[in-house]
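[recover] target loaded
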């Protein structure tokens, strides 16, 4: 009697029954994460910001750890160092930037009425008399009226921008959000290695080594890019600040730091600082 005839079938039939078991738990976990994220969607940006900050500061913490400093103390030292640097930078940059933007409220209407609009008027008159270009008789009056309207509109427009920048959120909410981000960043840094090990443990064994290798390469490239970009921002900010201060521009230090801070978008910081400086 052939025993193989009574042997349970193996192959595709069994895999079809195992597939729901293999994918069921991951799908449930993904659905649970999405549901929790949606429920706490107001706090989710704070978590993302805190994790990004921890990711950027992790090399500094490891630098202290290699010098036998306990991790918790290393995190505190990094917080203090970064806080001192940011406080020094913003204490110099923010007053200059606010003052320059406030000055535009008076400078833009004056330039419109005294320089730009008269220049446009002279150009139109030159075209009419030199090349006999047919311009309506009311063109001059229209240009003068445009100057008056531009003067009246510029002041409220700049005032709205300043008001939105200075009173977008309440001080209490801002302080609470900063405290939450700092606390989450401290936790992420303190448990950074444990979180990495926990994330690796969720990967199936047969794919764990591949995922770990690819994730390591991504982490290396992304980390170098992010930290290099921050270094470039500081260097460009210093160069712009020194250069604008050297040519005697009012608020040059603040404008230079502003240009460096937004230089992660190519050329944007340079042209914004150049545009503001052109009105000074």
């Amino acid at each position: 009697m052939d025993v193989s005839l009574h042997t349970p079938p193996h192959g595709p039939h069994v895999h079809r029954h195992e597939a729901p078991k293999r994918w069921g738990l991951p799908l449930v976990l993904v659905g649970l994460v999405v549901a929790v994220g949606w429920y706490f969607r107001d706090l989710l940006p704070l978590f993302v910001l805190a994790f990004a900050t921890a990711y950027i500061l992790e090399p500094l913490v490891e630098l202290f750890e290699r010098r036998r400093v306990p991790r918790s103390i290393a995190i505190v030292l990094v917080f203090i160092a970064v806080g001192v640097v940011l406080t020094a930078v913003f204490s110099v940059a923010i007053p200059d930037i606010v003052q320059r933007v406030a000055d535009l409220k008076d400078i833009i209407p004056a330039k419109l009425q005294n320089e730009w609009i008269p220049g446009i008027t002279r150009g139109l008159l030159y075209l009419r008399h030199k090349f006999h270009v047919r311009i309506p008789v009311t063109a001059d009056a229209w240009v003068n009226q445009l100057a008056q309207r531009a003067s009246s509109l510029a002041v409220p427009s700049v005032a709205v921008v300043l008001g939105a920048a200075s009173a977008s959120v309440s001080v209490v909410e801002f302080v609470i959000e900063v405290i939450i981000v700092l606390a989450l960043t401290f936790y992420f840094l303190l448990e950074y290695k444990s979180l990495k090990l926990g994330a690796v443990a969720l990967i199936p064994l047969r794919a764990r080594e591949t995922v770990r290798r690819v994730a390591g390469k991504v982490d290396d490239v992304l980390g170098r890019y992010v930290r290099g970009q921050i270094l470039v921002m500081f260097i460009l900010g210093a160069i712009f600040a020194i250069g604008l201060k050297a040519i005697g521009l009012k608020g040059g230090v603040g404008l230079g730091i502003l240009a460096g801070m937004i230089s992660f978008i190519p050329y944007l910081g340079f042209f914004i600082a150049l545009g503001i400086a052109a009105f000074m």
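[recover] notes: Residues 64 and 73 are 9 Å apart (CA to CA).
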